[in-house]
Amino acid sequence: MNALSEPPSSAETPWRILPQGDRCLIISFGDRIDAAIGRTCLAAARKLRDARLPGVTDVVPSFVAVAVHYRPDGLGNGPTCASLTARIGALLADGVTADALDGRQIDVPVCYGGEHGPDLPDVARAAGVTPDDIIALHSQPRSMVFMLGFAPGHAYLGVHDEKLNIPRRPSPRTAVPTGAVAVANRQTVIYPNRLPGGWNIIGATPLTLFDPAREPASLLQPGDSVRFVPISPQEFDRIREARP
Prior knowledge:
With 244 residues, the protein is of the alpha+beta class. 23% of the residues lie in helices and 27% in strands. The chain has helices at residues 35-51, 81-92, 120-127, 131-139, 233-242; strands spanning 16-19, 24-28, 56-61, 65-70, 105-112, 143-148, 155-158, 173-176, 180-184, 187-190, 195-197, 200-204, 225-230. InterPro entries: CT_C_D, Cyclophilin-like_dom_sf, PxpB.
């Protein structure tokens, strides 16, 4: 089932606001990875950014929560934890309408299997299907970008079919190649550069995921809808060589 096909919720959404150290508040909207909760986090983050609350330095959505970073009231000209909590509570008191899928729709070419996807056979065996079935399950429905994290431009996408509810590798790799497309726990990550990682690599994209000289620097943004498009190794090389 494609979780992204479900309509957004417009009902009042409960939340909890908890301090995370002395410079951050966490607004929690749930405890599971779910497209509707993810869209609610995106909507809440946008609402808080638009409010331009004094002292707030950054608003960061994730799968189930929104982090609000702020400068503490050390010199009398910034918010306290209590005052900021009250301001946020007042802003969200009328409810948060989950974002519809109105973000960008982006096609991401992926060369599956072989040297680009060394874990594809293992993922297929764990799921009890063929490698071609895994490619179809991964590429046919669109996937939502829930958040960026771990490294600049490192996107987390989902939620995939239950057959892709595969655990991470028992031993992580010390170096995962740039552009690797990997799955675990019904999610996908795309490595923007060479990084350590323990997800199951099923393919790679020739696209540049993060470029500081580009605006925005990250190719994928939270709320984007991504379609993975299978390509051949020859097409992979052609696209990579054509990059500026």
